[in-house]
């Protein structure tokens, strides 16, 4: 690996850091801790695919949140492209939230 390359695992960690800067506008917790991110895929060409959900199918940010996620991930050095796929299978529930998110929201 040359100095101009990056390990896909390391890139995945950088992506997670960026995802933790994006917040659901109705809940003061980032989308990663909320459990909205189901998976992050990075291929050898540094193209990123993010499988995520929303708290509800008629979430007010259904149009803007995926675009914000794509745009922010594309700003990461080495990322060639980013695509967000929205799924509601399985549907989001509060069980998907991290302990940190539950604590933040006074649920623990």
Task: Please describe the topology of this protein.
Blueprint lengths: L7 H12 L17 E6 L4 E6 L12 H10 L6 E6 L12 H6 L4
Pfam family, one: FeS_assembly_P
InterPro entries: Fe-S_Maturation_MIP18, FSCA_dom_sf, MIP18-like
Protein name: FeS assembly SUF system protein
Span between N and C termini?
45 Å
Q: What order do the helices and strands follow?
A: HEEHEH
| CATH fold naming | GMP Synthetase, Chain A, domain 3
| Reported CATH architecture | 2-Layer Sandwich
Mean pLDDT: 92
Sheet having the most strands? 3 strands, mixed
Individual helix count: 3
Gyration radius (Cα, Å) is: 14 Å
Strand content: 15-25%
Number of strands: 3
Spatial strand sequence of the major β-sheet: 1-2-3
Structure description:
This is FeS assembly SUF system protein. InterPro entries: Fe-S_Maturation_MIP18 (IPR052339), FSCA_dom_sf (IPR034904), MIP18-like (IPR002744). It holds the Pfam family FeS_assembly_P. Residues 13-86 form the MIP18 family-like domain. This protein has helices spanning 8-19, 65-74, 99-104; strands at 37-42, 47-52, 81-86. It has a single domain (8-93), classed as GMP Synthetase, Chain A, domain 3. It has a 3-stranded mixed beta sheet, with helices on one face. 26% of the residues lie in helices and 17% in strands. The chain is α+β, with helices and mostly antiparallel strands.
């Amino acid at each position: 690996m040359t100095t101009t390359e990056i390990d896909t695992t390391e890139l995945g960690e950088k992506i997670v850091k960026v995802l933790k800067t994006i917040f659901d506008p109705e809940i003061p917790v980032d989308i990663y801790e909320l459990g909205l991110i189901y998976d992050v895929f990075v291929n050898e060409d540094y193209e990123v695919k993010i499988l995520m959900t929303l708290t509800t199918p008629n979430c007010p940010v259904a149009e803007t949140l995926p675009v914000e996620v794509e745009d922010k991930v594309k700003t990461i050095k080495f990322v060639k492209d980013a695509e967000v796929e929205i799924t509601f299978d399985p549907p989001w529930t509060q069980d998907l939230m991290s302990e940190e998110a539950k604590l933040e929201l006074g649920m623990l």
